[in-house]
């Protein structure tokens, strides 16, 4: 079936009568035609052939539909239903799923509320901290479920992408100057050369997988209140196969570009915890490269849309913004180590989470929290209460040793870290300062009166901390010794504490 012949199928699927009289909304893309009714979506592949995909024959379109179903069902089983034929029935009419000869194939999906797609929610200012946390968990879970790809050569594929970006960005000199493109490409190649041993080791360790491939906010939707990934790349295994951090980088870059740096930081931190942080801390070194490449891709793709856009000037500016972001991301700020100490109930964890987004490089600092590390050491759920054996001197020493080790690993990867713990002894404070190993370090020690601290620990729900009013009272007897960190009054609101901490750290 040629593109012209396919128009008969497209016209048929656009008729309400073809869907039991229901209203039909049609959405067209360069490679698909999508038909939406109240409870169903049918998506056919256009009879087109591009350098990166080939839907020119009926069998190829059927295979692409089946691949889309196979790839997306693990991510979104509630959305993707089946591949259905569009057939000629006995009297020559077309039918959806009839017994006649197939003339086209469609992916059948459940209709969902498009206003619940995360790009819509972002535009409406509705991606809050809780949703960002759930998003990080959802992506980590998705990456855990997809197959590992051995011997793929991801670094070589990424180099091909860098070359393509360079060539295609140069095609639009009125948006991207040749000199700036050359500088971006040179810095990108230098970063890739430096990171090749890390990427090769990551691939040997099983972190190159058949991922989503197109993980931006527009391809994630809330289903029953949970982030659900859909519309994964099905037409090219090389595009969809990558280091899981490269897949994650698209989402982080999208959030950063939209000004949602706090949400991007929460996604990263929750992903690291949910995916097993120990296996991914070294890979933070690659995140600036990955996010920059993703931003450059968006820049060239957005620029290509300009000629067909109703608001070409707006599209052009969006392309420039993506390109500028790519240039910023490839040159990350140097890392720093920050420790946030204080007795239970002073608001350490609230401050650390709020502060992290403001600490460069993007998307903000990795937060290492003693309460979570303690639960990891004892292999229990984050909110499961530990028995007294979890709080012996030996256990606490293990926790602080793990915090220092992981903090050193993060900043060695070129990323910043915030360590959140009581830090009641001079030895604990000195040990975390040594973890900086010559890089900038600053310690904050939060203070608040006992009544305030008791009220705060009593108000916690579903939290990793096991501290209660009794613990808060016991800590009043701690001999803290000389605290040479910057003391921060934390008796007021979280916003007050954040502003004081930002001033102390010279962060904006």
Q: What secondary-structure arrangement, pairings included, does this model have?
A:
Elements: H1 3-13, E1 25-28, E2 32-36, E3 40-45, E4 49-50, E5 53-54, H2 58-72, E6 80-88, E7 94-96, E8 101-110, H3 118-123, H4 129-145, H5 154-170, H6 178-204, E9 208-210, E10 220-223, E11 226-229, H7 237-240, E12 241-243, H8 244-257, H9 261-275, H10 287-304, H11 312-329, E13 337-342, H12 348-356, E14 366-369, H13 370-377, H14 393-412, E15 417-420, H15 426-434, E16 441-447, H16 450-458, H17 469-475, E17 486-489, H18 494-505
Parallel strand pairs: 13-15, 13-16, 14-15, 16-17
Antiparallel strand pairs: 1-2, 2-3, 3-8, 4-5, 6-7, 6-8, 9-12, 10-11
Description:
The protein contains 18 helices and 17 strands. With about 500 residues, it is an alpha/beta fold. It has three domains: about 5-110, no CATH class; about 120-330, Aminoglycoside phosphotransferase (APH), C-terminal lobe (Aminoglycoside 3'-phosphotransferase, Chain: A, domain 2, Alpha-Beta Complex); about 335-505, Rossmann fold, CATH 3.40.50. α8 packs antiparallel against α9 and α12 (about 350-355) packs across α18 (about 495-505). The longest helix is centred in the middle third of the chain and has 27 residues, at about 180-205. The mean pLDDT is about 95.
């Amino acid at each position: 079936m040629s593109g012209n012949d396919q128009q008969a199928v497209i016209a048929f699927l656009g008729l309400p009568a073809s869907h039991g009289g229901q209203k039909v909304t049609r959405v067209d893309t360069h490679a698909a035609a999508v038909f939406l009714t109240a409870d169903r979506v049918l998506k056919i592949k256009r009879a087109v052939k591009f350098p990166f995909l080939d839907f020119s024959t009926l069998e190829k379109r059927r295979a692409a539909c089946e691949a889309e179903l196979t790839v997306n069902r693990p991510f979104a089983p509630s959305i993707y239903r089946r591949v259905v034929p569009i057939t000629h029935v006995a009297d020559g009419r077309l039918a959806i799923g009839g017994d006649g000869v197939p003339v086209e194939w469609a992916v059948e999906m459940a209709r969902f509320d498009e206003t619940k797609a995360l790009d819509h929610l972002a535009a409406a200012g509705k991606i809050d901290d809780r949703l960002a946390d759930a998003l990080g968990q959802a992506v980590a879970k998705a990456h855990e479920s997809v197959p590992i790809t051995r011997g793929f050569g991801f670094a070589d594929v990424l180099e091909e992408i860098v070359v393509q970006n360079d060539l295609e960005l140069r095609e639009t000199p009125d948006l991207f100057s040749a000199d700036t493109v050359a500088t971006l490409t040179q810095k990108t190649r230098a970063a890739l050369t430096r990171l090749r041993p890390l990427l090769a080791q990551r691939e040997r360790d099983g972190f190159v997988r058949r991922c989503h491939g197109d993980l931006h906010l527009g391809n994630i939707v809330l289903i029953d209140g949970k982030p659900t990934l859909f519309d994964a790349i099905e037409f090219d295994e090389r595009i969809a196969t990558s280091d899981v951090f490269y897949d994650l980088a698209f989402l982080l870059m999208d959030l950063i570009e939209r000004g949602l740096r706090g949400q991007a930081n929460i996604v990263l931190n929750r992903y690291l915890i949910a995916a097993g942080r120990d296996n991914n801390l070294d890979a933070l070194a690659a995140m600036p490269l990955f996010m920059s490449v993703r931003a450059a891709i968006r820049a060239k793709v957005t620029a290509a849309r300009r000629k067909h856009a109703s608001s070409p000037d707006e599209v052009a500016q969006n392309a420039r913004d993506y390109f500028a972001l790519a240039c910023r991301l490839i040159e990350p700020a140097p890392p720093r180590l920050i420790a946030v100490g204080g007795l239970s109930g002073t608001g350490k964890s609230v401050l650390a989470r709020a502060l992290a987004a403001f600490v460069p490089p993007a998307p903000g600092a990795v937060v290492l929290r003693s309460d979570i590390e303690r639960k990891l050491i004892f292999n229990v759920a984050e909110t499961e209460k530990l028995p007294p054996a979890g709080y012996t001197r030996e256990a606490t020493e293990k926790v602080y040793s793990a915090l220092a080790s992981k903090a050193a690993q993060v900043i060695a990867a070129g990323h910043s870290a915030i360590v959140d713990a009581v830090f009641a002894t001079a030895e604990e404070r000195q040990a975390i300062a040594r973890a900086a190993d010559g890089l900038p370090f600053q310690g904050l020690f939060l203070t608040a009166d006992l009544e305030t601290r008791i009220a705060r620990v009593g108000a916690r729900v579903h939290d990793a901390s096991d501290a209660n009013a009794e613990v808060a009272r016991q800590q009043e007897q701690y001999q803290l010794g000389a605290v040479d960190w910057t003391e921060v009054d934390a008796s007021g609101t979280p916003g007050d504490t954040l502003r004081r901490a930002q001033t102390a750290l010279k962060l904006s």
